[in-house]
Design brief:
The complex is a heterodimer of chains A (about 550) and B (about 550). Chain A is of the alpha+beta class and about 550 residues long. Chain A has 25 helices and ten strands. In chain B, a hairpin with a 6-residue loop joins β1 and β2. The chains are: A alpha+beta (about 550), B mainly alpha (about 550). At the A-B interface, α14, α15, α16, α17 and α21 of A face α14, α16, α17, α18 and α22 of B.
């Protein structure tokens, strides 16, 4: 029996998508080991919309959710509503939309590569790209969880697909504009990252694009602009605080550093020597270049991951697989030599500028803000993979052997993600709040006041989430308890019924008989709160590494 | 005028070499201060001249035992005549290495000329070698290690010579023998070259395999010559010298990866199950550590912004290359890969293998051990710069503007480098070299006999050798009266006393009673208030390094 070519091709594609789905869905509720505050907020707001049509602050069907005061564009919430309706409010229903869009991205990339390298007649290149995206650690990590950025990336890919397709049939340009606009409704950072993609597409495909009928360009432009308007306007309503707060331009070098440096050469600000050798502009440039280099460093991509935000990668591995290193090196060579100038320009420019949103913020590296970078990386790897395979032999079996070898090495990442991430990184995933809520809820009414340590982990949202707190009741009180940030950044909630969220001063609290106190072991010193006549230790929640304590729940007798 | 036109290239090359010389020779004696390794090279040359033995009494050794790090010896023999003619001074120790650094500039010109020979584009043939010489002449990486008796820079020079003569084989079949000699010489110069040079030679042999086969006679001669020259080295590998260095700094003496294996296995309930054993074991952990170290050498932060972590190897706020060269390196890589003929492949392979010696040690990136990277990077940058300017050839005015802009940017950035080097380096990194010791010896040397003991802090790296150096202490006496301590954690030893000098850390309260009638010389932190301080010793950077106490 002989399977014909087309069937085999689709079978492989189905196999790849099955792998992608398996990796993205397996044990989704428990790995990562805990919901982040953002995930809980997205889930609870979906619940709130489902029950009342309003968000936690009582706003009717908002486009942008105020949430913690960070004003999240809200498409992810609406995407989550049906899952909360079906599965109830839990980790799985909060995360599933992200996972499904992650799986969808694999298929979309397959389609995009088909258009991008259409002339090459390399059908297997699309398959390889999909395969490598399915196994890309960076993409897996952000697919598994309620990360808006991952959904935005999938919309971006759909936008690119329709953009490329519009050269065949110009009406597709309208869809392209539509999906690019959707990214803005999904993710804060998309304002910049999608703009980068669109500009790069226009530069790389300028010939084809400007041959399109003026009318289609015009319509698509109008639709895109109109759809982006609410989000773009919000910039001027002060609902984009984070952009300013994190921007690099609000951070000159420390005065002490500069003064010490200048004093070494008895130099002064304002002299010619200062402007020639130590200008502030050079300092900015060095900072920006440094962050840019970091996103291309072996440390970030292969060996350590996002070293500033451990939540953004699995322990002791990078954003990519180890085998991607040789693939990338070969892929770069192929990309430089390829005759398909449009595709190579597009991939190169995107690779260079995808990390721009991360570079313009203060973090040394940032895997979320630079997420788009993974697409050009995967495409280059795919070119490298296909080139190596075809160099060895044209037989299709070599392709399978290559894929099998890659899969074997991929086990190292699976181990890092599913075994080591939950254990070693549980503290970065806010582990302990769910367990605290589940302990407190049944006994909540036995206490007049419960004092819960306040933090930017937003403990209140876990109470709302895990108690399935009635949205209507909460909406009526949210305005009274929300404390906005002085800096236009994330705010906090001060109390919820008999629970007060505030800083813990143990010296004061330890005498307040009849109070339940929840805090970490730094605030509630273990030595001063032993089980005994004065205190009853209701529960200590350890982190999963077994070494340190997340939260301690103490009843003051 | 006719003369100028005719010899335009030669004149420009000459000017570039002059520029390179100024950058390498100005204040060579004092900026930076002599470090312990340089003092050891100089004093051992001095000792050989006076007694025919090194400081520890070994006669005409292949390796110098020195701090038990067994320094490959060629450098000592190279600076021997300098010490003979000019006496034992900083200048005489550093002059020859600096000159070798300067000679690398015209050498690179010829090497690049050989590499791009046969290019159809006449402008490329004409300008790339010159630009390469220029880029090297102002290269922070190359200047830094030309200024001082850094063995690595001499090894790099030999590697360039070896490569040049290898490529010359096509025109002169005897050149291959000379090439072999130079490659072997590099092995006698620096530890890391023992990995890099053979790999380079093998790469060349593979690339030029057809020419080698045609050239059987001289191939055999060069193999024989090379092998014979290597015999002393191979024999020495069995002695204490052979792997001494490797043990101290090698990555397998770092326990980090091993600890990680244990940590990761600890996440499994059955530590010795098949999965944790296959995924987390020493070979995997150490391979990853080596790969990670290797990759760090291509990190932009290291290459273009901040350079090495080790202060001795760098200038403040300066990368191993100039920041603007990111453009020429990227363009160069792009164009080189587009071409990828076999000579360019050689350059790329060199770039890939140069960090390997540094990758198998536990400090990475490491500008010193990976210094030969500067050669391929410079060649690529030069090619990229010329190509970049050629991009604008259709718009003549724009091209002229770009050339002027490049010139201006280089002027500013080199001026800034010089400013950082001479004004900021010693003050920003006061412990990067042995500042202050010369001043101390000038004070203590003439009077030390008046005291029972002179106790000197060992806070700053191997002070004994700098004392020997600056006092020109009689080597014959020293050989008789000293002992070397056992190796420390990193494989280094030191000398604790000679004459009436003692070198140790100073618990002042104890020593105050233990050594009456002695001089106690310590750091700010070691000397407590209330001591009878007779003199403070400042380095040329104005930092107070020592306080001299008359007890």
């Amino acid at each position: 029996m002989k399977i014909n070519k087309i069937t085999l091709h689709s079978l492989i594609l189905i196999f790849i998508i099955t792998i992608a789905a398996a990796i993205r869905l397996y044990n989704l509720s428990n790995v990562p080991p805990h919901l982040t505050a953002d995930e809980a907020a997205l889930g609870y707001n979906a619940y709130s919309i489902l029950k009342t049509g309003r968000d936690e602050h009582g706003v009717l069907l908002p486009i942008i959710f105020k949430s913690f005061g960070d004003y999240k564009p809200g498409l992810y919430v609406y995407l989550t509503v049906p899952f909360v309706a079906i599965f109830g409010l839990n980790e799985f229903s909060s995360r599933i939309a992200g996972a499904l869009f992650g799986i969808l991205a694999v298929y979309i990339l397959y389609k995009v590569v088909g258009l991008l390298f259409a002339e090459e007649k390399q059908k297997h290149l699309s398959l390889i790209s999909a395969f490598l995206l399915a196994l890309c650690p960076w993409h897996i990590l952000f697919s598994r969880g309620a990360w808006e950025v991952d959904v935005a990336l999938t919309f971006t890919l759909i936008g690119i697909y329709f953009f490329l397709k519009s050269f065949k049939s110009s009406k597709n340009l309208l869809f392209s504009a539509f999906f690019f606009a959707l990214t803005l409704a999904t993710y804060q950072g998309a304002k910049l990252s999608t703009a980068i993609v669109v500009v790069i597409l226009l530069i790389s495909f300028r010939k084809q694009f400007f041959n399109l009928p003026k009318k289609s360009i015009f319509t698509a432009g109008i639709v895109g602009l109109l759809m982006s308007l609410p989000i773009v306007l919000s910039l001027f309503n002060g609902q984009a605080g984070r952009l300013q707060v994190f921007s690099v331009f609000s951070a000159p070098r420390p005065e002490a550093y500069l003064q010490n440096f200048l004093s070494e050469g008895s130099e002064q600000v304002g002299t010619i020597g200062y402007y020639a050798f130590h200008p502030e502009g050079l300092n900015f440039l060095r900072g920006i270049m440094g962050r840019w280099f970091n996103h291309f460093s072996g440390r970030f991509l292969f060996f350590e991951g996002d070293w500033q935000n451990p939540r953004h990668s699995a322990p002791y591995v990078g954003m990519l697989n180890f085998l991607d290193l040789p693939l990338l090196l070969v892929g770069i060579v192929v990309l430089i030599k390829t005759k398909n100038r449009e595709a190579s320009t597009f991939i190169f420019l995107w690779l260079l500028f995808a990390s721009l949103p991360a570079i313009l913020s203060r973090d040394q590296v940032h895997a979320v803000r630079s997420l788009n970078m993974l697409v050009p990386l995967v495409l280059i790897e795919a070119l490298g993979f296909s080139s190596i395979v075809t160099k060895i032999s044209v037989k299709r079996s070599v392709l399978f052997i290559g894929g099998a070898i890659y899969l074997i090495f991929f086990v190292y990442y699976l181990d890092a993600y599913f075994v080591h991430l939950p254990k070693l990184n549980s503290q970065y995933w806010e582990y302990g709040f769910k367990q605290a809520v589940q302990t407190i809820s049944p006994i909540q009414n036995q206490y007049k006041t419960i004092i819960f340590q306040q933090s930017y982990s937003q403990p209140y949202i876990y109470f709302l989430f895990y108690e399935k707190y009635d949205p209507k009741t909460y909406q009526s009180q949210s305005a009274n308890h929300f404390i906005a940030s002085k800096y236009g950044d994330v705010g906090q909630v001060s109390n919820l019924d008999n629970i007060q969220f505030k800083g813990i001063d143990w010296q004061v609290l330890r005498g307040q008989t009849g109070t339940l106190v929840v805090g970490d072991s730094e605030r509630i010193p273990v030595g001063d709160s032993q089980e005994g006549t004065a205190f009853h230790v209701i529960k200590e929640i350890p982190y999963l590494n077994g070494k340190s304590i997340s939260l301690r729940i103490i009843d003051i007798k | 005028m006719n003369f100028l036109n005719k010899h335009k290239i030669a004149i420009i090359l000459f000017l570039v070499v002059i520029l390179g010389s100024i950058l390498r020779l100005y204040q060579l004696g004092q900026t930076p201060a002599l470090n312990a390794d340089e003092a050891a090279l100089g004093y051992n040359a001095f000792s050989l001249l006076k007694t025919g033995k090194d400081e520890h009494g070994n006669s005409w050794p292949l390796y110098f035992q020195s701090f038990n790090d067994y320094k490959p010896g060629l450098t000592v023999y190279l600076i021997l005549p300098m010490v003979y003619f000019f006496g034992l001074t900083e200048w005489s120790v550093r002059l020859l290495p600096a000159i070798i650094g300067i000679l690398t500039i015209p050498l690179l010109y010829f090497l690049v000329k050989e590499i791009i020979k046969g290019t159809k584009d006449k402008n490329i043939e004409k300008y790339v070698p010159l630009v390469a010489a220029f880029v090297l002449s102002v290269s922070p990486w190359h200047i830094h290690f030309s200024r001082g008796a850094w063995e690595v820079n001499i090894a790099t020079f030999f590697m360039c010579l070896g490569s040049l003569f290898f490529m010359r084989m096509r025109t002169n079949s005897r050149a291959i023998v000379i090439s072999a000699i130079f490659f072997v010489l590099s092995l006698y110069t620096y530890h890391a070259a023992r990995i890099t040079s053979p790999l380079l030679a093998i790469t060349l042999a593979v690339i030029y395999r057809k020419d080698l086969i045609e050239n059987k006679k001289y191939l055999i001669v060069s193999i024989v010559v090379g092998f014979v020259l290597c015999v002393p080295l191979l024999l020495s590998l069995r002695g204490p010298a052979g792997l001494a260095r490797a043990d101290g700094v090698a990555i397998w003496s770092d326990s980090g990866p091993e600890n990680r294996v244990n940590e990761l296995r600890g996440d499994y309930s059955n530590l010795n199950g098949i999965v944790p054993k296959v995924l987390h074991n020493k070979p995997v952990a150490y391979s990853l550590a080596i790969a990670s170290n290797w990759a760090k050498h291509y990190w932009g932060e290291f290459l273009f912004l901040s350079g090495d972590d080790i202060q001795r190897n760098k200038v403040p706020e300066t990368g191993q290359m100039h920041l603007i060269e990111i453009v020429s390196v990227c363009v160069g890589m792009f164009e080189v890969i587009k071409r990828s003929n076999k000579k360019w492949i050689f350059v790329l392979v060199w770039l890939a293998i140069a960090p390997i010696p540094a990758a198998i040690t536990f400090q990475a990136p490491h500008a010193l051990r990976a210094e030969s990277m500067v050669i391929p990077l410079t060649i690529i940058a030069a090619f990229g710069l010329v190509k970049f300017i050629q991009y604008f050839k259709k718009y003549r005015i724009l091209q002229v503007f770009i050339i002027i802009l490049t010139g201006l940017l280089y002027t500013v950035i080199v001026a800034r480098y010089v400013h950082m080097y001479y004004v900021h380096m010693a003050k920003e990194y006061p412990f990067s070299s042995q500042y202050g010791i010369k001043e101390l010896v000038n004070f203590v040397g003439p009077i030390h006999q008046n005291y029972t003991n002179v106790i000197i802090t060992d806070r700053y790296d191997q002070p004994y050798i700098l004392f020997l150096f600056y006092m020109k202490y009689d080597p014959a006496t020293f050989q008789q009266e000293h002992t070397l301590t056992p190796r420390d954690l990193y494989g280094f030893s030191t000398v604790r006393s000679f004459s009436n000098f003692r070198f140790e850390s100073i618990p002042f309260e104890v020593f105050k009673n233990k050594y009456p009638g002695s001089l106690i010389i310590g750091t700010d932190k070691e000397i407590l208030s209330g001591a009878n301080i007779t003199k403070d010793i400042y380095g040329i950077n104005g930092y107070r390094y020592f306080r001299v106490v008359l007890n």
